[in-house]
Amino acid sequence: MARSKATASKGRKGTGAAQKVGAKGNGKAKAGSYSAEDLLFFYKEMLEIRRLEERAGQMYGMGLIGGFCHLYIGQEAVVVGMQAAAIEGDTVVTSYRDHGHMIACGMDPKGVLAELTGRRTGYSKGKGGSMHMFSKERNFYGGHGIVGAQVPIGTGIAFAHRYRGDGHVCMAYLGDGAVNQGQVYESFNMAALWHLPVIYVIENNKYGMGTSVQRAAAGGDLFERGHAYGIPGEMVDGMDVLAVKAAADKALAHARGGAGPYILEMATYRYRGHSMSDPAKYRSREEVQKVREERDPIEHLKERILAEKLASEDDLKEIDKKVRAQVKEAAEFAQDSPEPDPSELYTDVLKEDVAAA
Ligand SMILES: Cc1ncc(C[n+]2csc(CCOP(=O)(O)OP(=O)(O)O)c2C)c(N)n1
Ligand SMILES: [Mg+2]
Predict the structure, then answer these.
(1) What sign does the dihedral 139-141-143-147 (CA atoms) show?
(2) What is the spatial distance between Cα 153 and Cα 166, in angstroms, rounded to a whole number?
(3) Per the structure, how many domains does the chain have?
(4) Ligand 1 atom closest to residue 208's alpha carbon, by position in its atom list
(5) Residue 14 lies in a domain
Protein backbone atom coordinates (compact mmCIF):
# COMPACT_ATOMS: atom_id res chain seq x y z
CA MET A 1 0.00 0.00 0.00
CA ALA A 2 0.87 3.64 -0.04
CA ARG A 3 2.66 3.67 3.24
CA SER A 4 6.14 2.47 2.53
CA LYS A 5 6.95 3.73 6.02
CA ALA A 6 4.82 2.16 8.69
CA THR A 7 3.38 5.44 9.89
CA ALA A 8 3.39 8.97 8.65
CA SER A 9 4.98 11.45 10.96
CA LYS A 10 5.20 15.17 11.04
CA GLY A 11 7.32 17.68 12.84
CA ARG A 12 5.44 20.15 15.00
CA LYS A 13 6.31 23.67 15.97
CA GLY A 14 9.56 23.51 14.06
CA THR A 15 11.03 21.23 16.72
CA GLY A 16 11.30 18.40 14.25
CA ALA A 17 9.64 16.22 16.88
CA ALA A 18 7.87 13.38 15.13
CA GLN A 19 4.25 12.82 15.94
CA LYS A 20 2.65 9.52 15.19
CA VAL A 21 -0.30 9.45 12.84
CA GLY A 22 -0.52 5.73 12.96
CA ALA A 23 -3.57 4.94 10.82
CA LYS A 24 -3.21 1.66 8.99
CA GLY A 25 -2.83 1.90 5.26
CA ASN A 26 -5.34 -0.83 4.53
CA GLY A 27 -7.51 1.28 2.23
CA LYS A 28 -10.68 0.53 4.22
CA ALA A 29 -12.63 2.96 6.37
CA LYS A 30 -14.72 0.38 8.15
CA ALA A 31 -15.21 0.42 11.87
CA GLY A 32 -12.41 -1.20 13.74
CA SER A 33 -9.74 -0.40 11.15
CA TYR A 34 -8.39 2.41 13.25
CA SER A 35 -7.14 2.56 16.78
CA ALA A 36 -8.44 5.04 19.35
CA GLU A 37 -5.14 6.88 18.98
CA ASP A 38 -5.68 7.27 15.22
CA LEU A 39 -9.20 8.61 15.54
CA LEU A 40 -8.29 10.97 18.36
CA PHE A 41 -5.42 12.28 16.29
CA PHE A 42 -7.72 12.99 13.33
CA TYR A 43 -10.17 14.65 15.73
CA LYS A 44 -7.48 16.86 17.24
CA GLU A 45 -6.10 17.84 13.84
CA MET A 46 -9.50 18.87 12.47
CA LEU A 47 -10.28 20.77 15.65
CA GLU A 48 -6.94 22.55 15.52
CA ILE A 49 -7.70 23.81 12.03
CA ARG A 50 -11.22 24.88 12.99
CA ARG A 51 -10.23 26.71 16.16
CA LEU A 52 -7.33 28.44 14.45
CA GLU A 53 -9.57 29.64 11.68
CA GLU A 54 -12.33 30.74 14.07
CA ARG A 55 -9.66 32.79 15.80
CA ALA A 56 -8.43 34.16 12.46
CA GLY A 57 -12.01 35.18 11.68
CA GLN A 58 -12.22 37.05 14.99
CA MET A 59 -8.84 38.70 14.47
CA TYR A 60 -9.93 39.78 11.01
CA GLY A 61 -13.03 41.36 12.52
CA MET A 62 -10.82 43.22 15.00
CA GLY A 63 -8.80 44.70 12.14
CA LEU A 64 -5.70 42.70 13.01
CA ILE A 65 -5.58 40.93 9.65
CA GLY A 66 -5.37 42.94 6.46
CA GLY A 67 -6.01 41.90 2.88
CA PHE A 68 -7.83 38.73 2.00
CA CYS A 69 -8.58 35.84 4.30
CA HIS A 70 -10.33 32.71 2.99
CA LEU A 71 -11.45 30.30 5.67
CA TYR A 72 -11.48 26.51 5.28
CA ILE A 73 -14.05 25.85 8.02
CA GLY A 74 -16.20 22.84 7.06
CA GLN A 75 -13.58 21.28 4.79
CA GLU A 76 -11.16 20.05 7.48
CA ALA A 77 -11.63 16.32 6.84
CA VAL A 78 -10.16 16.64 3.36
CA VAL A 79 -6.67 17.75 4.20
CA VAL A 80 -6.48 15.82 7.48
CA GLY A 81 -7.46 12.57 5.74
CA MET A 82 -5.05 13.17 2.88
CA GLN A 83 -2.12 13.96 5.17
CA ALA A 84 -2.88 10.91 7.31
CA ALA A 85 -2.20 8.77 4.25
CA ALA A 86 0.89 10.68 3.11
CA ILE A 87 4.42 9.91 4.20
CA GLU A 88 7.08 12.32 5.33
CA GLY A 89 8.52 14.00 2.22
CA ASP A 90 5.32 13.99 0.15
CA THR A 91 4.53 17.50 -1.01
CA VAL A 92 1.46 19.75 -0.94
CA VAL A 93 0.44 22.75 -2.99
CA THR A 94 -2.92 24.51 -2.88
CA SER A 95 -4.88 27.69 -3.48
CA TYR A 96 -5.47 30.71 -1.24
CA ARG A 97 -7.76 28.68 1.07
CA ASP A 98 -4.66 27.31 2.64
CA HIS A 99 -4.47 27.62 6.45
CA GLY A 100 -5.81 24.10 7.01
CA HIS A 101 -3.22 22.62 4.68
CA MET A 102 -0.45 24.37 6.57
CA ILE A 103 -1.58 23.02 9.91
CA ALA A 104 -2.06 19.52 8.49
CA CYS A 105 1.46 19.69 7.02
CA GLY A 106 2.78 20.36 10.50
CA MET A 107 3.46 24.07 10.19
CA ASP A 108 3.45 26.07 13.40
CA PRO A 109 0.16 27.88 14.22
CA LYS A 110 2.24 30.71 15.68
CA GLY A 111 3.98 31.34 12.37
CA VAL A 112 0.67 31.09 10.51
CA LEU A 113 -1.17 33.61 12.70
CA ALA A 114 1.89 35.88 12.77
CA GLU A 115 1.88 35.91 8.97
CA LEU A 116 -1.86 36.59 8.85
CA THR A 117 -1.32 39.60 11.10
CA GLY A 118 1.68 40.82 9.07
CA ARG A 119 4.35 40.24 11.74
CA ARG A 120 8.04 39.58 11.18
CA THR A 121 7.77 36.17 12.89
CA GLY A 122 5.34 34.98 10.20
CA TYR A 123 6.19 32.34 7.62
CA SER A 124 6.82 34.97 4.95
CA LYS A 125 8.25 37.50 7.42
CA GLY A 126 4.91 39.29 7.50
CA LYS A 127 5.15 40.26 3.85
CA GLY A 128 2.93 37.63 2.25
CA GLY A 129 -0.19 37.29 4.35
CA SER A 130 -2.86 34.63 4.16
CA MET A 131 -2.37 33.59 0.54
CA HIS A 132 1.41 33.49 0.41
CA MET A 133 2.92 31.15 2.93
CA PHE A 134 5.42 28.40 2.26
CA SER A 135 7.46 25.93 4.25
CA LYS A 136 10.15 24.02 2.47
CA GLU A 137 10.86 22.24 5.74
CA ARG A 138 7.27 20.95 5.96
CA ASN A 139 7.01 20.33 2.17
CA PHE A 140 4.28 22.92 1.75
CA TYR A 141 4.60 24.89 -1.50
CA GLY A 142 1.88 27.54 -0.99
CA GLY A 143 -0.68 29.29 -0.95
CA HIS A 144 -1.52 30.60 -4.53
CA GLY A 145 -3.95 33.42 -5.29
CA ILE A 146 -4.36 32.83 -9.01
CA VAL A 147 -7.12 30.30 -9.50
CA GLY A 148 -5.64 27.08 -10.89
CA ALA A 149 -2.02 28.30 -10.82
CA GLN A 150 -1.04 25.68 -8.27
CA VAL A 151 -1.98 22.86 -10.66
CA PRO A 152 0.96 23.25 -13.07
CA ILE A 153 3.19 24.03 -10.09
CA GLY A 154 2.15 20.77 -8.41
CA THR A 155 2.69 18.94 -11.69
CA GLY A 156 6.21 20.39 -11.82
CA ILE A 157 6.88 19.31 -8.25
CA ALA A 158 5.72 15.81 -9.21
CA PHE A 159 8.10 15.94 -12.16
CA ALA A 160 10.91 16.73 -9.71
CA HIS A 161 9.92 13.75 -7.54
CA ARG A 162 10.07 11.50 -10.54
CA TYR A 163 13.31 12.99 -11.92
CA ARG A 164 15.01 12.56 -8.57
CA GLY A 165 13.48 9.14 -8.03
CA ASP A 166 12.75 10.02 -4.41
CA GLY A 167 9.55 7.95 -4.20
CA HIS A 168 7.41 10.89 -3.15
CA VAL A 169 4.07 12.14 -4.42
CA CYS A 170 2.75 15.67 -4.80
CA MET A 171 -0.81 16.44 -3.74
CA ALA A 172 -2.09 19.38 -5.77
CA TYR A 173 -5.39 20.75 -4.43
CA LEU A 174 -7.78 22.77 -6.55
CA GLY A 175 -11.32 24.05 -6.22
CA ASP A 176 -14.45 23.28 -8.25
CA GLY A 177 -14.02 26.74 -9.78
CA ALA A 178 -10.47 25.99 -10.88
CA VAL A 179 -11.36 22.91 -12.93
CA ASN A 180 -12.45 25.14 -15.80
CA GLN A 181 -8.98 26.64 -16.21
CA GLY A 182 -7.06 25.67 -19.35
CA GLN A 183 -3.79 25.17 -17.48
CA VAL A 184 -5.40 22.32 -15.54
CA TYR A 185 -5.72 20.28 -18.74
CA GLU A 186 -2.22 21.08 -19.96
CA SER A 187 -1.09 19.72 -16.60
CA PHE A 188 -3.28 16.62 -16.84
CA ASN A 189 -1.83 15.87 -20.26
CA MET A 190 1.79 16.14 -19.13
CA ALA A 191 1.19 14.24 -15.90
CA ALA A 192 -0.50 11.37 -17.73
CA LEU A 193 2.05 11.30 -20.53
CA TRP A 194 5.01 11.14 -18.15
CA HIS A 195 3.30 9.08 -15.41
CA LEU A 196 3.99 11.76 -12.85
CA PRO A 197 3.37 10.99 -9.18
CA VAL A 198 0.67 13.57 -8.53
CA ILE A 199 -2.77 13.44 -6.93
CA TYR A 200 -5.13 16.17 -8.06
CA VAL A 201 -7.45 16.76 -5.13
CA ILE A 202 -10.52 18.66 -6.29
CA GLU A 203 -12.14 20.22 -3.25
CA ASN A 204 -15.68 20.55 -4.57
CA ASN A 205 -17.22 22.81 -1.92
CA LYS A 206 -20.11 23.57 -4.30
CA TYR A 207 -19.20 27.20 -4.97
CA GLY A 208 -16.55 29.27 -6.73
CA MET A 209 -17.00 32.64 -5.04
CA GLY A 210 -20.77 33.22 -5.45
CA THR A 211 -21.32 30.84 -8.38
CA SER A 212 -22.57 27.35 -7.72
CA VAL A 213 -20.78 24.51 -9.45
CA GLN A 214 -23.98 23.65 -11.37
CA ARG A 215 -23.92 27.09 -12.97
CA ALA A 216 -20.19 27.02 -13.76
CA ALA A 217 -19.20 23.51 -14.80
CA ALA A 218 -20.57 21.62 -17.80
CA GLY A 219 -20.60 17.86 -17.95
CA GLY A 220 -20.75 15.27 -15.20
CA ASP A 221 -18.72 14.79 -12.07
CA LEU A 222 -15.51 16.76 -11.95
CA PHE A 223 -13.26 13.75 -11.37
CA GLU A 224 -14.30 12.58 -14.85
CA ARG A 225 -12.39 15.47 -16.35
CA GLY A 226 -9.27 13.30 -16.36
CA HIS A 227 -10.82 10.49 -18.38
CA ALA A 228 -9.75 11.94 -21.74
CA TYR A 229 -6.15 11.63 -20.53
CA GLY A 230 -6.60 8.18 -19.06
CA ILE A 231 -6.33 9.52 -15.50
CA PRO A 232 -8.40 7.48 -13.06
CA GLY A 233 -10.52 9.28 -10.52
CA GLU A 234 -13.32 8.95 -8.03
CA MET A 235 -15.78 10.82 -5.87
CA VAL A 236 -15.10 10.82 -2.15
CA ASP A 237 -17.19 11.94 0.84
CA GLY A 238 -14.97 14.85 1.81
CA MET A 239 -16.86 15.32 5.08
CA ASP A 240 -15.73 11.91 6.35
CA VAL A 241 -12.07 11.84 7.32
CA LEU A 242 -11.93 8.04 7.16
CA ALA A 243 -13.40 7.93 3.65
CA VAL A 244 -10.80 10.52 2.62
CA LYS A 245 -8.00 8.53 4.23
CA ALA A 246 -9.09 5.33 2.46
CA ALA A 247 -9.29 7.05 -0.93
CA ALA A 248 -5.96 8.76 -0.33
CA ASP A 249 -4.29 5.44 0.49
CA LYS A 250 -5.45 4.06 -2.83
CA ALA A 251 -4.53 7.13 -4.89
CA LEU A 252 -1.12 7.50 -3.25
CA ALA A 253 -0.31 3.82 -3.82
CA HIS A 254 -1.23 4.28 -7.49
CA ALA A 255 0.97 7.34 -7.96
CA ARG A 256 3.83 6.13 -5.79
CA GLY A 257 3.89 2.82 -7.62
CA GLY A 258 4.63 4.57 -10.93
CA ALA A 259 1.13 4.34 -12.46
CA GLY A 260 0.84 8.12 -12.86
CA PRO A 261 -1.66 10.72 -11.70
CA TYR A 262 -4.97 10.18 -9.91
CA ILE A 263 -7.92 12.49 -9.33
CA LEU A 264 -9.91 12.59 -6.10
CA GLU A 265 -13.02 14.73 -6.10
CA MET A 266 -13.93 15.61 -2.54
CA ALA A 267 -17.60 16.36 -1.94
CA THR A 268 -17.26 19.01 0.72
CA TYR A 269 -18.71 22.34 1.83
CA ARG A 270 -17.45 25.64 3.16
CA TYR A 271 -19.46 27.14 6.00
CA ARG A 272 -18.16 30.68 5.72
CA GLY A 273 -18.31 33.06 2.79
CA HIS A 274 -15.76 32.89 -0.01
CA SER A 275 -13.59 35.36 1.87
CA MET A 276 -14.18 37.53 4.92
CA SER A 277 -15.81 40.21 2.78
CA ASP A 278 -18.46 37.86 1.34
CA PRO A 279 -21.95 38.09 2.90
CA ALA A 280 -22.81 34.82 1.05
CA LYS A 281 -26.19 35.97 -0.27
CA TYR A 282 -26.14 33.38 -3.05
CA ARG A 283 -27.21 30.58 -0.70
CA SER A 284 -29.68 30.27 2.13
CA ARG A 285 -28.84 30.04 5.82
CA GLU A 286 -30.86 26.83 5.87
CA GLU A 287 -28.58 25.26 3.29
CA VAL A 288 -25.51 25.94 5.43
CA GLN A 289 -27.27 24.91 8.62
CA LYS A 290 -28.35 21.61 7.10
CA VAL A 291 -24.78 20.65 6.21
CA ARG A 292 -23.55 21.74 9.64
CA GLU A 293 -26.15 19.63 11.36
CA GLU A 294 -26.00 16.58 9.16
CA ARG A 295 -22.48 16.34 7.75
CA ASP A 296 -20.06 18.24 9.96
CA PRO A 297 -16.76 16.34 9.78
CA ILE A 298 -15.77 16.98 13.39
CA GLU A 299 -19.16 16.13 14.87
CA HIS A 300 -19.33 13.07 12.64
CA LEU A 301 -16.04 11.73 13.98
CA LYS A 302 -16.95 12.70 17.53
CA GLU A 303 -20.14 10.64 17.34
CA ARG A 304 -18.19 7.69 16.05
CA ILE A 305 -15.55 7.93 18.77
CA LEU A 306 -18.27 8.06 21.43
CA ALA A 307 -20.34 5.28 19.85
CA GLU A 308 -17.33 3.00 19.71
CA LYS A 309 -16.40 4.03 23.26
CA LEU A 310 -12.89 4.97 22.18
CA ALA A 311 -12.98 8.04 24.44
CA SER A 312 -15.40 9.81 26.75
CA GLU A 313 -17.10 13.21 26.33
CA ASP A 314 -14.66 14.51 28.95
CA ASP A 315 -11.64 13.24 27.00
CA LEU A 316 -12.89 15.07 23.92
CA LYS A 317 -13.55 18.24 25.92
CA GLU A 318 -10.01 18.03 27.23
CA ILE A 319 -8.65 17.87 23.64
CA ASP A 320 -10.72 20.93 22.73
CA LYS A 321 -9.41 22.76 25.79
CA LYS A 322 -5.81 22.02 24.85
CA VAL A 323 -6.39 23.05 21.24
CA ARG A 324 -8.03 26.32 22.33
CA ALA A 325 -5.10 27.06 24.64
CA GLN A 326 -2.62 26.38 21.85
CA VAL A 327 -4.49 28.67 19.45
CA LYS A 328 -4.76 31.41 22.10
CA GLU A 329 -1.02 31.17 22.70
CA ALA A 330 -0.38 31.40 18.94
CA ALA A 331 -2.64 34.46 18.64
CA GLU A 332 -0.86 36.17 21.54
CA PHE A 333 2.49 35.34 20.02
CA ALA A 334 1.35 36.93 16.75
CA GLN A 335 -0.02 40.06 18.38
CA ASP A 336 3.09 40.49 20.52
CA SER A 337 5.43 40.14 17.54
CA PRO A 338 6.76 43.30 15.86
CA GLU A 339 5.90 44.28 12.32
CA PRO A 340 8.65 43.87 9.71
CA ASP A 341 11.35 46.53 9.62
CA PRO A 342 10.85 48.92 6.66
CA SER A 343 14.21 47.71 5.27
CA GLU A 344 12.44 44.40 4.55
CA LEU A 345 10.78 46.15 1.63
CA TYR A 346 14.01 45.57 -0.26
CA THR A 347 14.59 41.94 0.63
CA ASP A 348 13.18 38.84 -1.07
CA VAL A 349 12.49 40.82 -4.26
CA LEU A 350 14.23 40.61 -7.62
CA LYS A 351 16.69 43.44 -7.02
CA GLU A 352 18.44 42.92 -10.36
CA ASP A 353 15.20 43.73 -12.15
CA VAL A 354 14.75 46.87 -10.10
CA ALA A 355 18.31 47.98 -10.86
CA ALA A 356 17.90 47.29 -14.56
CA ALA A 357 14.63 49.18 -14.85
C1 LIG B 1 -7.25 33.38 -12.79
C2 LIG B 1 -8.17 33.92 -11.74
N3 LIG B 1 -9.44 34.24 -12.09
C4 LIG B 1 -10.28 34.74 -11.16
C5 LIG B 1 -9.86 34.94 -9.87
C6 LIG B 1 -10.84 35.46 -8.81
N7 LIG B 1 -11.22 34.35 -7.95
C8 LIG B 1 -10.64 34.16 -6.76
S9 LIG B 1 -11.22 32.82 -5.98
C10 LIG B 1 -12.29 32.46 -7.23
C11 LIG B 1 -13.21 31.27 -7.12
C12 LIG B 1 -12.51 29.96 -7.14
O13 LIG B 1 -13.37 28.96 -6.65
P14 LIG B 1 -12.93 27.49 -6.33
O15 LIG B 1 -11.87 27.06 -7.28
O16 LIG B 1 -14.16 26.68 -6.26
O17 LIG B 1 -12.22 27.56 -4.90
P18 LIG B 1 -12.85 27.89 -3.46
O19 LIG B 1 -12.75 29.36 -3.28
O20 LIG B 1 -14.23 27.39 -3.45
O21 LIG B 1 -11.97 27.18 -2.50
C22 LIG B 1 -12.18 33.40 -8.24
C23 LIG B 1 -13.00 33.39 -9.46
C24 LIG B 1 -8.53 34.61 -9.55
N25 LIG B 1 -8.03 34.76 -8.32
N26 LIG B 1 -7.71 34.09 -10.49
MG1 LIG C 1 -15.22 26.01 -4.64
Answers:
(1) negative
(2) 18
(3) 1
(4) 13
(5) no
Model confidence at 22, pLDDT cuts 50, 70, 90, reads very low
Q: Give mean pLDDT, residues 13-33.
A: 37
Ligand 1 atom closest to the Cα of residue 145 is 25
Instruction: Look at residue 21 and tell me if it is in a domain.
Output: no
Supply the range of the domain harboring residue 152: 32-356
The residue type found at 44 is K
Domain membership flag for residue 299: yes
CB-ligand 1 contact for 175 (6 Å cutoff): yes
Indicate whether residue 273 lines ligand 1 (CB < 6 A).
no
Query: Alpha-carbon distance 180 to 147, whole Å?
Result: 10
What's the length of the chain? 357
Pocket test for ligand 1, best of 130, 180, 209 (most atoms within 8 A of CB): 209
CATH number reported for the structural domain that contains residue 218 in this entry: 3.40.50.970
Q: How does pLDDT run across 253-296, given as a tens digit for each residue? A: 999 999 999 999 999 999 999 999 898 999 999 999 999 999 99
pLDDT, tens digit (0-9, with 9 covering 90-100), for 212-223:
999 999 999 999
For residue 218, tell me if it sits in a domain. Answer: yes
